[in-house]
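Hi R.,

Here are the chain sequences for the assembly we discussed:
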Amino acid sequence: MYDQTRNPEQYQKASLFLMQWQREQVLAFAPDSASIKVAQKLTTISKWSAPGVVDGVALWGECRGGREKPYQTAIDLAEIAFKCSCPSRKFPCKHALALFLLYVETTDSFVEQEPMPNWVQRWLDGRAKRRNAQTESALETAPNLLKSTPAQLEKKTTPYTSTKGQSSVKTQERRAAARAEKVASGVDELTIWLKDLVRSGFIDAQTRPYSYWQQMAARLIDAQAPGLAAQVTALGNIAASGDGWADQLTAALGKLFLLLKAYQRLETLPVPLQREVRTLIGWHQTKEEVLAGEAVAGHWRVLSHTLEQEENLISQRIWLQEIDRGQYALILNFAHPSNRQSLDAFWRSGTEVEATLFYYAGALPLRALATDVVTKTSLTSVAHLLPIAEALHSYQQGVAQNPWLTRYPFFLANVIPGAAQQRSAPQGFIYDQTQHLLPLSRKAKSIWQLLSITGAHPAHLFGEWLDDGLLPLGLWYEGRYWAL
Amino acid sequence: MTMWQQLVQQGILGTSRQPTLPPLDPSLALLWSQVSDLSVENLAENKAENKIGAKQDGEERFLQMAAILTQYEVAGRIPEALPISADLHETKPAPLEFVPSVTDSAAALLRQLIVEFDLKLIIEWLTYAAKYALHLPPEILPLLLDRARKERALATALSPCLGERGRWLLMLNPSWQSTAFESVDEERWQIGNAEERMAYLFALREAAPDRARDALAMVWEQEAAAERSAFLATLRVNLSMADGPLLETAMIDRSQYVRTEALRLLAALPDSSLRSALLTQITTYVTVERGWLQQQLVVNLPSSFTQEWKAWGIREQSPLGVRIGQKAGWLVQLVSLVPPSALVEALAVDAVELLELVRASDYAEALVTALLEGAEQHRDFDFLLAELHHLLRLLELAQISQSEFIERFARYAPTLPMGKRLTLVRRYLNTTGTSAFGDWATLQMVLRHVDSLSPAITTQLLTQQLPTLLQRNTRDYGVGRTLLDLAYQLAPVGYSQAETLLQHNPGEERPDYIERFLQIYGLRWQMMQAFEDG
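And here is the predicted structure of the full complex:
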């Protein structure tokens, strides 16, 4: 059992997930490839003394290192967390990774042992205590949030609101008003900056140093509009991106301008679109807020699990599809490359899970939090497939609800991949039985894998529709799901 | 030019340089009004006066049009239909596979090897797949084909396991065809460095000897002496009388190195006139006299130096460095020019007999040296093998030291077939018992010249040699390196013996090199099982 909201009552089901730990999943925790290499040297049972496990709860061992006293390493199996007494600054350290790998590869070497050693028990108790405090705080806040309007939500996003007095509420209101004022001035400043950029021309902007974009982004951070800051940074990246940059920059400027206009008229927009705009500007929806929304329980296909790294941020994207209704959901997590603990290692493409999801509010809700996740089986079938023309139409309907929609799930029926040799790299494309064609995105690296697996025979292809084409992420072919 | 293209052009130049906005399509007027500050009523009023966006500045109008057109493009996109161009057309499907795929466990193991990309282990995996006539999992093919572009050994190992799917992929992607899977690449000959050109010639010589010779003849005059000599040596592959004319040309080359190489190649040709001339001269001075019970080698030294010998590169004053007289030196140089097998035939003896007769002669040391040099030059491995077996006999009789044998083995091994090398190693181990290798470096010297060790040698090493070496000097610098080599070379079947040998007390730390040895050796054992069980 895995729960993004860390509910301690769900521990007893954790072993259902545990039985399915794979080496690749453990390696996904590694902060870098060097850690994997050094950890592998420690993946022999002889390196460890007193290894033990309580199935679904914790795993521990003592590893003899360079010091007289062995390093004590433990892993919380209920909601993955690592502890080690070594001085490493990497997280998880090589000992924790090695212990986990060793457990996955030679589970029999670990003796089921209760009670656990004191040092393990103390650590788990401390974690449980902190977790309970957070859960109680969330539960106190969540019921009040259920009936809140988006405007009221701003005041209620901190857990202290319900426990503090009226003065605290006033403080919150003052803070919210101050932030709104700051954002409004940030939006005005950005509008002027964009106009300057357009006046002097893109060619001029292209020759500007990186700091030109970063300075504006920094001012937007100061204005408490981190979403806008990220979009300005993205403009700078587009200007330096090569082929097609001017078209992309024009489109990105257009979308950004539309967002600024929308924010200036926020009160006139439908409530879901207001949430969307606020999120894009940089208002964060807390877990408590999200959990206050409608619960969507069901069986879900895990269609993709990808990690993307940009500078110092790793984004984890997991696409789910509800089995009966075909409804999509995106689980999105972020982490710093040196500490991947906030990423979920449980999801495996091509499996079916039972889970309750809570969608983030927005014009076209796709992002969600998952709770009560239990893996059931590998996928035995796929459904809710669309031909290319219908998928594109569905995306266009999505754009009508959310004009800033950038990545949209496509599950295409019976498409055939093809590759045309261009000067620099092969141009990948797919076509369906009605001979409709879609290009693959420049980000797509899997055209040869697609061709190799299918042999250019029809297959059902899952992917994300991006601005420049489809990014293939999974494939159903010959009764099996392939992660790409 | 479309509305969008005009807009992008304006954006590139800037509104200060190009203030005029492209005319707005009337169908977009409503959308414009929704985004602009103008109300629909105002819009109608402004439209009538043809002043759409008149209250806005040029920059705002640009941004607004970018916003509208971007949405318009996205919302109005319809899928294109095949064929769009000559490039974008239907792909011919891959043919069905005729051979089975590897088992799931073997495929999982390959994925694990690819994570670390241990090329040796991947090649071993592919060798198993080829042995059992299995094809690769299709999802792994592109990755390995990519890597094979740079790793010729990988390409060679991959080739038999491509299956129908792999061969079909090669047809689709020319970049995979150009280097690794095509045995020869003309471009490398034209613009490559000396090493690449040598590799090209060797490969071409194996595939099409005549084409290789013609390619060399074509550039012969332009090449420097060092290249002429090196390229000429490639003719040893598939050498035939058809190479005679080019070799005759090389015999009168201005470079002594080229002449010497040409002479050796001509001497290696069984029907060449040079070889006949050399043998005629040698058998004038060296004969076998056969009596009732024994035979002996009779050596008559030449009386004078001839001009013909000079043309053959024989030096009048400078013998081979052994302490012999001038005339004996001429004879020794003559003998070293021919393949010993030719001399064996001419004297009607076998290799072992000839070596024994020479050793019993008055010029034993010099003539043995000459024969062995000839054997090395002409890759006459029978002769070298006979010498190594002779040395083993001496070792059994304690007349030479172990290091003397190892040194000679290391020198001749590159010429010997792998099976013969392993036979020699096995016999050496039987002869020397538990003290075959005084240190790790000596063992490594032997390992360098053998690849996969047989199960018998593996058992001997694991039960006799390694226990002694591990007890004797585990602090030796070479221990880690040698154990790593062994991890890749020992027969996988001996893994459990290795585990037993290296067993240690619980809690006691094992050195990293032992762990690494067991890890790699263990993977090879798993590999063997994955294929044999399948």
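Chain B has a mean pLDDT of 86. Chain B touches chain A through 70 residues (CB under 8 Å).

Let me know if anything looks off.

Best,
T.
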